[in-house]
Amino acid sequence: MSRAPLSRPPLWRAIIALAAIALSLYIALTQSARLGLDLRGGTQIVLETRDSPTVKADAASTDRALEVLRQRVDALGVSEPGIARSGEKRIIVELPGVQDPRKAAEVIGRTAQLTVHPVTGATADQGSAMPDADGARTLPDPDQPGNHLKLGPTALTGEGVANAEAVLDQQSLSGWLVSLDFREGAGDTWAKITSDAACAPQGAPERRVVITLDNKIISAPGVTADVRCGTGITGGSTQISGGFGRAEARELAALVKGGALPVPLDVVEQRTVGPTLGADAIEASTKAALIGIALTALFITVVYRLLGALASLALALYGLISYAALVALGATLTLPGLAGFVLAIGMAVDANVLVFERAREEYLGTRSKDLAKPVKTGFAKAWSAVIDSNVTTLLAAGLLFFFATGPVKGFGVTLCIGVLASMLTALVITRALADFAVARSFVRKRPGLTGIASTGRVRTWLSRRNPNLVRHRRRWLGVSALLVAVAFAGILIRGLDLGVEFTGGRLVEYSTSRSVDADTARNAVSDAGFPRAVVQESGDGDITVRTEKLTDDEQQRVKAALEKPGGTVTVERDEQIGPSLGSELRQKALLALGIAVAAQLIYLSVRFRWTLAAAAVSAMVHDVLLVVGLFAWLGRPVDSVFLAALLTVIGYSVNDTVVVFDRVREVRRRDPRGDLENTANHAVVQTLPRTVNTGMGALFILTALAVLGGDSLADFSVALIAGVLVGIASTVFTAVPIAIALEHRNPPPPPARDRCAAKEVPDGYPLEAGRKKERGTGAVV
C-alpha cells in the first residue's frame, strides 16, 4: 500500500477547501476590487446638516438631502461616485478623480433654491435683498453693473422643473445654455410669466424675466420680439443663457435638476489625494507585501520543512480567498486596509505555527511511527488557542469598523476578513494538505522531512538551558513599571502630537520639483504669514503644512511661497477637519480604546478565570502605554492610522497572552493541585517556540512595510513593530507574573475529589509520558 486510506473528515475538509479555492478564483478573475480614494485619487467631503428656520435636521431630512446630492453628483459626470449617510446628520460624498475640493463642495453643498420672478421695475438704489412674504425683493442686475431690478412675487420654483441639461448654443456654437423642461402645470405658469412680460415695451425692464439661485440673479433674459403679448413661450420648455462655459452650464444644470436642499449643509471634513500619490502608495505597498510574504514563507519552510512549505502554499491561497471575499462583499480597499490585508498574513502564520508546535510536542512525546496521529492531535489541541487568539483580534478590528471613518475603517474591514480567512486556511486547507502529505508512504518513512520530528533550535535551547522565567517575577514587574513610568514621562513632557483628525484644522502635502528641506520650507511658510504652521518633511521628500485654520486663498499663498525654493509645487494631499468633528473623533478614539479594553476583559473572563483575564488586560494596557510613550518621545503624529495600529496592538498583545494562558488552563485541568509557578513556567517554556516563530513571521512583514511601504505606512508599521516586540516580552514578564500574584491572592475553589480521581491524562503529553520534571521549573528536561 502506498498510502493510508483517506478517512471521512479529511475528505470533507478537502471538499470544502477545493470549493473555497474554486469560488475565490472565479471571483478574482471576473471582478475587480473597489479602490479607496487614497489609492486611486480623488476627493472625499463630509457634510453635516443643520436646522433651518422651517425644517429640523434629522435622519429624514438628511435622507432627502442625500437624494438631492446624488442627482447633483450624477449630473456632474463624476465616474463611480459614492454617497452615503453616516449617522443621523452626516453625508459622506466620494468623488474619484476630482482634484478641486473647493469647487466640488461649492456645487454640491449650495442650497440651490431656484425661483422665477417677473420684473416690476429698475432702480439705482440697492433696496432690500431680503424677500418679502411673497418672494418680492430687489437684487443687483448682472447685465448692468450699478443697476438693481425690482422683482415681483415668486411665480415659479425649482420644484416645477422636470429636467435640466447643459447644451451647446446652436447659434454661436461656442457658448453653452441650460435647457429646462417644466413639469405639468409649471409650463403654463412659464407661458403666463412670459406672456405678461411680452406686453411691456422693448427695452423696458418689465420685459425681462429673472431667474435666481440662492437669492442671486443667474439669468435675466428679455422676452424676444417674436413672443406675442398674451401668448408667451409655450411648449413646456425654455433655455437659460448667460455666457456660460461648459463646466458652468453643467454645474447650473446639476443644481437645478437636483432641486433645493431641504436643510443647509456644512462641510465638516474634506480630503483630497492626488492620483500620483495613490499610484505610488499601491506600488510601494505591493512591493513591501510581496517581499514580506516571501520572507515569511521562506522562514516557516526552513523551520517546519514540508509542513512549512504546505503552510506557505496555504498562505498564497489565503491571499486569494481574502481578496475574493473583499471583492464579493463590495468592500473598499484603502491604504491602511491593504496593510491590514498583509498584517493578517502574520496571523495566518500564527495559526499554522500553533498547530505545528503542538504536533511537534505530540510526536516527541510518543515517537509514534504514525505521523497522522501527532498531526491530528496538534490540530485538535491548538484549536482553542487559535479560536481565542483570533477572537480577541476580531474584537479590535470590529471596533475599528464601528468607530473609525474613511481609510481606517477599511483597515478594520480587511483585517476582519483576513482573520477569518486565516482561520479557514490554517484549520481547513493546511489541515487537508497535511493529512494528504502524511498519508504518503514516502513521507511516513522519512518523518524528519515533515518538520515535526525535529525539536527545533528554540526548543532545543530551552530544553538544554532549562530556564525558570518566572522565578524573578517581582524584578520583571519592576522593570515593566519603570518602562511605563518612562512612557508617561514622554506623554507629560513631550506631549502627544495629535493629528489633524483629532485637533481640527487643515493639512496639505506638497510635492516640489526641487528638493526642499524642512527648515527652508518652514521659513518660506512663516514669511507668507503663517508662523505657527507645523511644517514637516515626509519620508518621500514632500512637505506637509498643518495649521488650525487655512482658507483656500491662504492655501494658495502657502503654495506660492513654496514655489520660490521648490520650483513647481503640486498638492498631493489635502485634509480639512472642522473643530467639532475633531473633538468628536477624539472622543470616539478614547471610547474605542475603552471598549476594546472592556471587551477583551469580558471575553477573557468568560474563557478563563477573571484573574487570568485581568492579568492579560493589564499586560495589554502596559503595551499600549509603551507604544504611545514611544510616539511621544519620537514626536510622531498620533492620528487615525495610529489608532488603527494601537487597536491592532491590543489584539496582538492579548493574542500572545491567550496562547500561554490556554496552556496554563490545559495543565491545570489535568493537575488542579499542581504548583502554580511550575505550571506557569511550563506554559511559558512550552509556548515560547511558537511566540518566537510567530513574532519573526510578523516582523518580516512589518519591517518590509516600514522600509518599503512608503511614508503613509511608516508610522503605522513602526507602531506595530514596537507593539509586537513589547507584546512578546509582556506576555512572559508582565502578564504571567501578574497572573501568579492574582491567583495567590484569589485561589480557585478546591476541586472535588471524585472529579480529581476521574481525571485521565491524555496520551502523548510531554510531562506525563515518562519524562521527568525538574522541581521548581516545570521545564521539560
UniProtKB/TrEMBL annotation:
Domain SecDF P1 head subdomain: 144-263
Subcellular location: Cell membrane
Membrane-related topology note: Multi-pass membrane protein
InterPro entries (alphabetical): SecD, SecD/SecF_arch_bac, SecD/SecF_bac, SecD/SecF_CS, SecD_1st, SecD_SecF_C, SecD_SecF_C_bact, SecDF_P1_head
Keywords noted in UniProt: Cell membrane, Membrane, Protein transport, Translocation, Transmembrane, Transmembrane helix, Transport
TM helices/strands, residue ranges: 288-307, 314-332, 378-404, 410-434, 476-496, 589-606, 613-634, 640-661, 692-710, 716-742
Positions of the Protein export membrane protein SecD/SecF C-terminal domain: 268-434, 559-743
Main localization of the protein described in the UniProt heading: membrane
Residue ranges constituting the Protein translocase subunit SecDF P1 domain according to the UniProt record: 63-120
GO cellular component: plasma membrane
Biased composition (Basic and acidic residues): 747-762
Any one of the GO BP annotations: protein targeting
Stretch list, region Disordered: 747-781
Entry's family note: Belongs to the SecD/SecF family. SecD subfamily. Belongs to the SecD/SecF family. SecF subfamily.
Role played: Part of the Sec protein translocase complex. Interacts with the SecYEG preprotein conducting channel. SecDF uses the proton motive force (PMF) to complete protein translocation after the ATP-dependent function of SecA.
Self-association state and partner proteins as the record states: Forms a complex with SecD. Part of the essential Sec protein translocation apparatus which comprises SecA, SecYEG and auxiliary proteins SecDF. Other proteins may also be involved. Forms a complex with SecF. Part of the essential Sec protein translocation apparatus which comprises SecA, SecYEG and auxiliary proteins SecDF. Other proteins may also be involved.
Protein name per UniProt: Multifunctional fusion protein
